[in-house]
Amino acid sequence: MRRDMKLTQAQLGKSLVTPVDQATISNWESGKTELTACQLLDIMMLFGQPNFLSFIEQYSPVEERQTA
After folding, report:
1. Pairwise CA distance, residues 29 & 43, whole Å
2. Distance of CA 30 to the CA centre of its chain
3. CB-count exposure of residue 41 (10 Å: 0-12, 13-18, 19+)
4. CB within 8 Å of 1: residues ≥ 6 apart
5. Strand, coil or helix: what is 6?
6. Which residues contact 50 (CB under 8 A, 6 or more apart)?
7. How far apart are CA 42 and CA 12, in angstroms?
8. pTM of structure
9. Domain boundaries defined on the chain
10. DSSP-assigned states of every residue in 35-67
11. What is the pLDDT of residues 1-18, one digit of tens each?
């Protein structure tokens, strides 16, 4: 979603209610660390995706959707 909106990791981090640095965004995207529920909700609202289930379906990897 970040790339779709043409945001850098730094720009996304600064846009959150509780800002985080670029390295934090990088760690989330690479799977090194996980977001808190509050951070996930913040990102969902920022990207206009308040429906959790449709958000997960839209952005989960294809192989996860096929096994569900």
Report:
1. 13
2. 11
3. middle
4. 43, 47, 49, 59
5. coil
6. 44
7. 11
8. 0.70
9. 9-67
10. --HHHHHHHHHHTT---HHHHHHHHS-HHHHHH
11. 899 889 999 999 999 999
